[in-house]
Design brief:
Strand order of the largest sheet of chain A: 2-4-5-7-6
Mean pLDDT of chain B: 85
Largest sheet of chain B: 7 strands, antiparallel
CATH class of chain A: Mainly Beta
Largest interface: A-B, 61 and 67 residues
CATH topology of chain A: OB fold (Dihydrolipoamide Acetyltransferase, E2P)
Number of strands of chain A: 7
Number of strands of chain B: 29
Oligomer: heterodimer
Number of helices of chain B: 21
Distance between the termini of chain B: 56 Å
Shape of chain B: globular
Helix content of chain A: 10-25%
Radius of gyration of chain A: 21 Å
Mean pLDDT of chain A: 79
CATH architecture of chain A: Beta Barrel
Number of helices of chain A: 2
Low-confidence stretches of chain A: 125-131, 133-137
Shape of chain A: elongated
CATH superfamily of chain A: Nucleic acid-binding proteins
Order of helices and strands of chain A: HEHEEEEEE
Radius of gyration of chain B: 33 Å
Number of domains of chain A: 1
Chain lengths: 137, 833
């Protein structure tokens, strides 16, 4: 076979491998209910759940609990279907956590608790800030 | 007083820059169409471009004046700056916002355009058409005008007033309200990297247009090969600067951010990495054309692909499409439509032009045999392209989601949970292939190879194998992929070194390539050890479960350290020695206990002579300035005889929410020790004190305070108490209690006082480091005894994460070597031209 044909075949094979690996065991953004169902079937795959922190009437975050050893914490996350779920996280609370507009937790259900292995924060958009900072007035 | 003129001036410059870029593009177009027989179009175009450049500089100067003079009536100054920043950080705030960074890009490109006008007599017209068009698009991003008919806004101007950008109610009552201070710069961005990384990166972006413009010019003019010679040195320039910018970003992340690494496979990072890979491939195919007149079509495809990918990365980064997928994701300025048009415009035109001219591009007759240098370069370019494809396909998931949603689908694919596993391990194998190809290709490049000469390659191959085997066994690199990378890295270093020796003997100016390849090998080996063998020193396996239901899948990477209590982790003994503060004008760290606060948070008074590392910093009673926002945590790492002290930093900044932590790194040749504070103790709440314990002692008698040995040294009558008025008949008595801590002796001085002959008061004294509070409860003159009350609380603590990153310095050394190689290659090609 001509060497250029061999190379072409190898390239195509690699390309296909790339596409398959990208598409396979892909995580997806789901709701807590979907995550719960998925955990019943397959407890190895992590899912992404987008939500907001539970806040009280003043807009302050509630439901935060520090672990007894200070090295972990739990919080209440409300997903896009308005379901509230307690999420456990195995590290101390990340800075800026309470100021995050949206929170993405990556993890899975263990029995009835959602254990997050990673948290992604989205900081509030400065451009959309409609109120001036009181400190500067 | 509102300063309206300067904003209007800035806006005027923007419009002028836009109009002149279009005029320049048009004039250069006409010049090219007329085959430059008529110099007047060229002159027109040059005048327009010069005015354009002056306007761009004008935009920069006006915006800087707004920032420098703190005109907070302007949105840009308010949102990104404040009055506390020193001048060099004010410069950095320039590119803190999207509008400013667009400006940086167009500024560099205007400069490059001017340089090309001066140096490229032959190619000026068609190349500058592309330049001017791109400039037009860039300026349109900061136009900020509204088209009346369709009421869409084009661009986002940096010169809009605060009251037009934000709908705060205060503007309804007070039109001319100007805030006293701005939002300032995120503390993570307040370092010298923010001053040098963006300009370097944007210069790299701007430079990628040069090979693209030359390629388009070549296609347009139907001069399919002459463009390579002038374009090559600039392509090297782009590769060097863009690469340098990317690496700066990595080093910055390592030094300042807390994920303990230099690369996160974040979509914004990937979006720049992929064009860079393709750019490297383009450099090699262009070089191949110069020597053997092959790979011309490939070169066209690659230089177009590089620029298209840069536009794509701009789109990904700035359109907000990345949303939740990236920590870098900038807020959506509503520019996504414009960015898409920008991207599609150039992509479609370039591909169309290439397609039309495809058949006319000369193709070499040469057969591609396995012994030709072109063959190896081609394989290398192919590998680089596959490498880039793997990254971009996964990174573009948010784009697939958007497209899917556009057509009514669900579009909720999430990115891979473990980016490192997905990207790093695959890219690692691509890198192995690249090293093997590159090490071998260099032999083919520099000499006519045939079956006999193949033995020449065998030597480095076996040598590398030997070195790899030795290192694998000594350092216990038992992972297959790491072993492969180690072997491939040694191979490319050794092969390139051999080539370098023979090239230096013949003509030293040609050594750039070999040196660059050595740099790449060093970088890969540095990455291998520092990332692959990074050890979490603070790994803690003795903790309790979070809750019984949470299971035991644990990765306790954080360590809680109580003050003065060492813990042993992974061959290190780690101890938290206390919080420190930093004087403003001297270098060193000071114990909080050693200073007294004053009314101003910025000034303190030394309680005693303060020394640091043997040097005396301040005398007793001396007043000096500090940076109150920064708290440092003195953490000592002991391994055998070696003691390393690190000072990770925490900054409490209410504007930025919560706290901001920065790591401290101890750099050694063989490894870096990297630590940062994951969570400081919560100082807001009142500490919980235990129930008071009473003990009665005589002077000189030893007793225990929370397991510490204490002694009542003396009890004296005192005439005055600070901050407390004493009348003549009042009696005040102070007890000095010495408590033996782990490293030093602390003193508590509780006071007992009788006012107006009847009221009894007690002022307890607290020893912070030990977490004890001692009060002088009662005096029994008959027996000569004193009653002391003792309360204790949980000791101060800090939660840290500590990592060991072996041989990471090899990575940084490799970076330096790579840049030297690039510089030499660039110089050679510029001289040839």
């Amino acid at each position: 076979m001509k060497i250029s044909h061999i190379i072409a075949i190898v390239v195509i094979a690699v390309a296909i491998a790339i596409i398959i690996s990208t598409a396979s065991d892909s995580s997806s953004y789901v709701s807590f209910d979907q995550a719960y169902e998925m955990a019943a079937v397959d407890n190895k795959t992590s899912v992404h759940v987008v939500g907001e922190l539970k806040k009280d009437a003043n807009g302050d975050v509630i439901g935060l609990e520090e672990g007894a050893d200070h090295l972990s914490f739990s919080f209440l996350l409300i997903d896009e279907n308005k379901k509230e779920q307690k999420v456990y996280y195995n590290e101390p609370m990340p800075p800026d956590f309470t100021r995050s507009e949206k929170v993405v937790v990556i993890g899975k259900y263990k029995a009835d608790d959602f254990v997050a292995s990673k948290i992604l924060l989205k900081c509030p958009s400065k451009y959309q800030e409609q109120k001036l900072n009181n400190a500067s007035i | 007083m509102m300063h309206y003129f300067i904003g209007d001036l800035g806006h005027f410059f923007v419009i002028t820059a836009f109009v002149t870029s279009i005029i320049s593009a048009w004039s250069y177009w006409k010049a090219q169409q007329n085959n430059e027989l008529d110099q007047s179009w060229i002159t027109n175009a040059r005048v327009a471009f010069s005015i354009h450049t002056i306007s761009v500089i004008g935009i920069g100067v006006t915006l800087f004046l707004i920032i420098y003079n703190h005109y907070f009536e302007y949105n840009y100054a308010y949102s990104h700056t404040d009055t506390h920043l020193p001048v060099y950080y004010l410069v950095a705030t320039f590119w803190n916002g999207q509008e400013g960074s667009f400006w940086l890009w167009m500024f560099w490109q205007a400069i490059l355009g001017l340089i090309l006008i001066r140096t490229q007599k032959n190619w000026e017209a068609p190349v500058l058409v592309v330049f001017a068009l791109v400039q037009g698009f860039l300026v349109s991003m900061i136009l900020g005008v509204v088209i009346p008919g369709i009421s869409t806004k084009i661009g986002s101007s940096p010169f809009i007033l605060l009251r037009d950008a934000m709908q705060d109610p205060i503007f309804k009552t007070q039109q001319d309200f100007i805030p006293k201070d701005g939002n300032g710069l995120n503390p993570l961005l307040q370092n010298y990297w923010m001053v040098i990384h963006p300009p370097t990166l944007f210069l790299g972006f701007a430079a990628t247009i040069i090979p693209f413009a030359f390629g388009i010019a070549g296609l347009w003019r139907k001069k399919y090969s002459e463009w390579i010679q002038p374009a090559l040195p600039w392509t090297l320039f782009a590769g060097a600067i863009l690469g340098l910018g990317i690496l700066m970003g990595g080093y910055w992340a390592y030094e300042t951010l807390n994920f303990g690494g230099y690369w996160n496979w974040d979509p914004v990072e990937n979006a720049v990495y992929v064009p860079w890979l393709i750019l490297i491939a383009a450099i090699h195919t262009m070089m191949t054309y110069k020597t053997s007149q092959t790979a011309l079509r490939t070169s066209f495809i690659l230089v177009i692909a590089v620029f298209v990918l840069i536009l794509y990365s701009t789109f990904l980064t700035r359109s907000g499409i990345l949303g939740e997928a990236s920590v870098h994701s900038f807020t959506d300025l509503g520019l996504s439509g414009q960015l898409l048009i920008y991207l599609l415009f150039f992509t479609v035109i370039a591909i169309a032009l290439l397609a039309i001219r495809w058949k006319h591009i000369p193709v070499s007759e040469k057969e591609l045999t396995a012994y030709s240098r072109e063959f190896w370069i081609f394989l290398g370019a192919l590998t680089l392209c596959l490498m880039g494809t793997q990254v971009i396909i996964e990174t573009s998931k948010p784009v697939y989601n958007s497209i899917s949603r556009f057509f009514g689908g669900e579009g909720n694919r999430a990115p891979k949970e473990n980016a490192i596993q997905f990207y790093s391990y695959v890219q690692l194998w691509f890198a192995v292939v690249l090293c093997l190809l590159s090490g071998t290709a260099q032999f083919f490049w520099w000499g006519k190879m045939d079956k006999k000469k193949l033995k020449e390659i065998l030597m480095p191959f076996l040598f590398a194998l030997l070195i790899a085997v030795i290192i694998i066994n000594v350092l216990r690199v038992y992972n297959v992929s790491f072993a492969a990378l180690l072997f491939a890295g040694s191979y490319i270093i050794y092969s390139s070194a051999r080539i370098l020796i023979s090239v230096v003997k013949a003509n030293p100016r040609l050594s750039g390539g070999a040196i660059a390849h050595i740099g790449v090998g060093l970088m890969l080996i540095g990455m291998l050890f520092s990332a692959g063998y990074s050890k979490v020193v603070s790994l803690n396996n003795t903790g309790l479960l979070i809750s019984k239901e949470a299971g035991d899948e644990f990765n306790r990477d954080n360590l809680i350290l109580f003050i003065n209590e060492p813990r042993t982790m992974a061959d290190y003994e780690i101890e938290f020695l206390g919080e420190r503060i930093e004087p403003k004008y001297k270098s060193g760290y000071i114990k909080r206990n050693d200073v007294e606060l004053t009314e101003s948070p910025y000034k303190v008074i030394a309680k005693k002579d303060i020394t640091y590392n043997g040097k005396k910093l301040f005398s007793a009673k001396e007043e000096f300035e500090i940076n109150p926002e920064n708290t440092y945590y003195e953490i000592e790492f002991r391994k055998g005889d070696k003691v390393t002290t690190l000072y990770p930093r925490v900054q409490v900044n209410p504007n930025m929410g919560g706290f901001v932590a920065s790591p401290d790194i101890k750099k050694d040749f063989s490894r870096d020790i990297y630590t940062y504070v994951s969570a400081p103790m919560n100082k807001e709440e009142e500490p919980e004190w235990s129930k008071m314990e009473e003990t009665t002692v005589k002077i000189g008698q030893q007793f225990f305070v929370n397991d510490y040995v204490a002694v009542l040294k003396e009890v004296n009558r005192i005439e005055e108490i600070q901050g407390f008025g004493l009348a003549k008949e009042d009696v005040a008595v102070k007890a000095i209690v010495e408590v033996q801590g782990e490293h030093e002796i602390y003193q508590a001085d509780p006071v007992f006082l009788i006012r107006d002959r009847s009221q009894v008061g007690r002022l307890p004294s607290e020893i912070n480091d030990l977490g004890v509070k001692i009060a002088l409860l009662n005096i029994h003159p008959e027996t000569g005894e004193f009653s002391l009350g003792i309360n204790t609380r949980q000791k101060d603590f800090v939660i840290i994460k500590a990592m060991e990153k072996p041989y990471i310095n090899i990575l940084w050394i490799g970076t330096g070597v790579l840049m030297i190689g690039f510089a030499m290659a660039m110089t050679r090609r510029f001289r040839e031209h």
